[in-house]
Amino acid sequence: MTLPFPSTRTSDRPADYCRMPVEASLPMPVQPVTGASRTSLTSPLSIRVHRSITIALTGLLVATGLVLMGQAFAPRSVTLAEWVGLGLYGALFIWIAFAAAKTVTALIWPVGKVNTRMPNGPLQTRTALLMPVYAEDPRGWAGSLEAMARELSEAGHARSFELFVLSDTRDQASAAREARAVRRLAKRLAGVMPVWYRRREDNIGRKAGNVADWVRRWGGWYDHMIVLDADSVMTAEAMLRLADAMERDPAAGIVQTVPRLVGAQTVFGRLQQFANRLYGPSVAFGHAIWQHRDGNYWGHNAIIRTRAFAETCGLPSLPGAKPFGGDVLSHDFVEAAFMRRAGWSVVLATDITGSYEGCPPTLLDAAKRDRRWAQGNLQHVAFVRAGGTPWMNRVHMIDGIMGYAAAPLWLGFIIAGLLLPNATFLEGGLIVSAAQASEPGHLQVDHTSAAAAFVFTVSVLLFPRLIGLTDALANRALRQQFGGSLRLIASWLLELVVSTLLAPIFMVLHSCHVFDILRGRDTGWATQTRAGTSLPWLEALRLHASHVLLGLGILAVGAVLIPSGVWWLLPTVLGLLLAPALAVIGSGPRVGEQLGRWGLLQSEDPAAIRLHAAGTRLGKGYGATARPTAKLTPRKAGRLPAKPIDRRHIPLFARAA
């Protein structure tokens, strides 16, 4: 049990701002990859029926797609090459159909909805707000933390929270700026909320290791922790709803919010932000109903029961060499699985708004981020195969793996479609030549059936987008946030066109990521870019030359092998050919600002605008100073000093206890 709250508390003195409290350790044993489920939370009958309907609907959609695609071939026995094409199509379509089926079933039968509330009185628990940083600009995270703390203070609940900045920064100059920013933040929040700072000497485990180190050394003081990213920001209402949900549900291990994207300035960022705001709620709602209390964790903007995390989420080091061995990169999925394996529930609270994060500002930044995610998600094969992993967490992990494995499957499907009419086929044990395959009774394509299969596939793919658009048009307040009906429809069409053009580019990028990982290349740990910079045309042409050449190659092969059906390839080819232009236009803020003046891709809600503006305004006070940067000592870097900490460094609630 954590120590009781005192009736009053005050902030520490300015001299102590870059220290940590005395340690209150929690044991956090390393968990095995394979482990028996100690307890299980049985889902209600209504949820089991809901899941059965979702699975049945997925199967129906997949069967329909396969029948339509199969009818595209001549009415005869299916050849080996056709089986390959149908297999690739089916693997891709299962993933698409499953997402659509979850949305449909939730709309028809929204059973088991999570309903959170604001606390009726003072919170009875303590929550640590953890901000892990790695060579980040302090003006971003410090301004956001100050805005969050001040909102909590205005709501009358600041005494229930404390701020921790947990740094993995290696560069001495960046670390010095961090330490100065934390001192400034603590001075501004004196009497409002305690602020603590620790910079690790060793980066073992990256972000997951950073949080685990905090849990082992200081987690005993706190009932819960809200884990943030450097670009995260949350309203006071969102944080209070999370804390109240944990207090009212003693079986909850993690309550995850659905972060909305905020602060995008570039065209690429605004497109992501618009899609997230318009389509995200319906998709997340369907996902939340489907998973119920067997949910997933996305690594940030969630509240976690500290002792449950310590008991169950000690991450193992995967056997073998990198990239499949070593540290678990996509640790959040694994931590959710370990929580569920131990019997704690993981819940996705879709009714909590006011949870926000940034997004990659450019196509290149998104590709860099996806490289790390791809490696982490492919590592999950070990946990999917491991005994004791709950079946729903296996589904989450397979879904994450397919997010990247779908790219080479799609590329393979395109190649198969190009070669199918002119290849040799093994049919009935005999080799059939390309010339014979064009004769009656051999390989022929029914373009009418192929068109029907294409229309059906696109309809299933677009269904969540249509639901989001319909919901926004039917809701006046939401419609106005998007600039009104006409601007909403225009933005929807713009996003649809651009995302269609970007899809084949990501197909190639993700395929390269997967092949890169399979041949043994590790991603490393690079810092993330939060603000967009305009990409020069020559650099864009150099970076995307392979996309253009691939597009020209597909078009040339298609014109020779399937001249009558080459127009089916145009959406893919056009996106690849336009890759340099899309990268340049999407990277700079100027075009994004112009779209904003026209009211297009407008998507931020009032709370996001208010909180982001407050964070930006406050963050201006945390810029680098003109003072020369001295070499860091352990004290300046925020590490615990060698001598014992006197009572001024102990949190007031610990002193009172």
* Anisotropy-based shape: globular
Distance between the termini: 12 Å
Task: Kindly state the number of beta strands.
Answer: 12
Enumerate the spans where pLDDT stays under 50 for 5 or more consecutive residues: 1-17, 423-443, 625-657
Mean pLDDT: 85
H/I helix tally: 24
Find the structural class using helix and strand composition.
Answer: alpha/beta
Please report which band the strand proportion falls in: under 5%, 5-15%, 15-25%, 25-35%, 35-45% or over 45%.
Answer: 5-15%
Rg calc: 27 Å
**Main sheet properties:** 7 strands, mixed
Strand order of the largest sheet: 3-2-1-4-8-6-9
In helices, the fraction of residues equals 40-55%
Output the keywords.
657 residues; alpha/beta; three-stranded mixed sheet; 12 strands; disordered N terminus; disordered C terminus
Structure overview:
- The relative contact order is 0.16.
- The protein contains 24 helices and twelve strands.
- It is 54% helix and 7% strand.
- The N terminus and C terminus are likely disordered.
- The protein is of the alpha/beta class and 657 residues long.
- The protein has a seven-stranded mixed beta sheet with strand order 3-2-1-4-8-6-9, sandwiched between helices.
- Helix 7 packs across helix 14 and helix 17 packs across helix 20.
What is this entry, summarized?
With 657 residues, this protein is α/β, with parallel strands linked by helices. The chain is built from 24 helices and 12 strands. Helix 4 (172-188) links the parallel strand 2 (161-167) and strand 3 (195-199).
